[in-house]
Design brief:
five-stranded mixed β-sheet, elongated, five-stranded antiparallel β-sheet, Rho GDP-dissociation inhibitor activity, 5 helices, RhoGDI_dom_sf, signal, Ig_E-set, alpha+beta
Amino acid sequence: MKGHACVILLMCLSCVCATALQVKRGDEPKAVPAQRGTEELTRDYPPPKQMDLQTLQERDADDESLVKYKEALLGSTADVLDEGGQNVLLKALVFAPVDHEETVLDLTGDLSQFKHNPFVVKEGAEYRIKLIFRVQREGVSGLRYFEAVYRKGIRVDKANFMVGSYRPKTEEHIFQSPVDELPAGLLGRGDYIVKSKFTDDDKNIYLEWEWSFSVKRDWE
């Protein structure tokens, strides 16, 4: 019996060693790319029916514990200011240099002025983009900010920022981009036009506009 057990043990060890050698030689099967696998699994899956925040809050109204849980999770729209217009209101874009005063573009008025009135920025300066906005009636998912930067009609840069998902509230939300750096040098100085767009996962476009800045040797 002992001899038989030793034989079985040796056979198991041989299998383990063979498998290890295959892995070491790179013979293991390749994993299916996550993106392709996701598409195959979800392409025939019907998306859930969209439901506004008020409908969600009114469901199961007789269950007090569930009502309290949903209020904590989703918030209540009863006291949220509704200014009319779209559900998401983009109030301002702020050009925020790290070591200089900010430039605020008020997006509630005439947007055409920003394209033809560039503000001056110092070459090589570090800065952030801030977005000030409100969500007023329903929660929104996957807010995104896109921008494409042009010089003399040629696109020289582009960016796509995931702003996030938010629930309604009277107070304004503020999003800040990572720090970026302006062009510098003789080739970097000049006038730039930025085409911006604010959207969400449902392809709603809340605002599209153009603005401009001028890169110079120093702040003016």
